[in-house]
Amino acid sequence: EAAIFPSSGTQYLELDDPALTSPSGDFAFALWVEVQANTNGGIILGAHEGDVAFPDSAYFLYYDGVFWIWNINNFGTTVEIEDETLGWHLIACQYTSSGQLLQLSLDGAAFVSLAAPPSSPSSGSYPFRIGAAGDGGGALRNAKIDDVRFWTRLLDSTDLALLWNDGNGDI
C-alpha cells in the first residue's frame, strides 16, 4: 500500500539512521511517486532542515510541479529533469563520491549527471524524512509514495531496467 500525502501536508515518515542522515561514500535511492492533477510541489525525501527557500540540508529530492530536483548541500548543486506527466513515476537518485556526481533518473531512463562540489553531503543532525522537510515544512501534498529503497552502492542501467520493468516495477 502506498503512503498517501494528503492536502493537509501534515503526514511524513521520519527515520533515525546515520546511514541516511549523514551518508558517506556512494549512495543511491529509488522510489515510486504518483503525481496527481492537484499535486503541489514539496520535499519527497531527504536529510533536510528548514524551509525550501532557505534550507539547511545534506541532500533532498523535491518536486515543484514541473521539475524533479535532486539537491545536495543547500542548493549548491542541483540536477533537474522537467516532466509534468501525471501518474506513477520511478525516480532514482545517486551520489558518486569518487567522481563527485549527482545523478537523477526518471522512469528507468539513463541517469542525467551533474558535477558536484568536491565534498560529501553535509553531515549533521538533519532528520531524514519521507514526505516533508526536517521541520515538517515543505511537505509534499496530494501525492503518493511507494517502494522506497536505499543502497550504499551505485545503480547501473541493469538496476534501472529491473526497477522500471516497463512501468510495472519489480514487485
What this model shows, in words?
The protein is mainly β and 171 residues long. 7% of the residues lie in helices and 48% in strands. The chain contains two helices and twelve strands; from the N terminus they run E-E-H-E-E-E-E-E-E-E-E-E-E-H. It has helices spanning 18-21, 157-164; strands at 3-5, 13-15, 27-40, 42-49, 56-63, 67-72, 77-82, 87-96, 101-106, 112-115, 128-130, 141-151. A hairpin with a 3-residue loop joins strand 5 and strand 6. It is globular and about 40 Å long.
List keywords for this structure.
mainly beta; six-stranded antiparallel beta sheet; 7% helix
> For the CA atoms, what is the radius of gyration?
15 Å
Number of DSSP strand runs: 12
Task: Give the topology string: H per helix, E per strand.
Answer: EEHEEEEEEEEEEH
Structural class: mainly beta
Strand coverage percent = over 45%
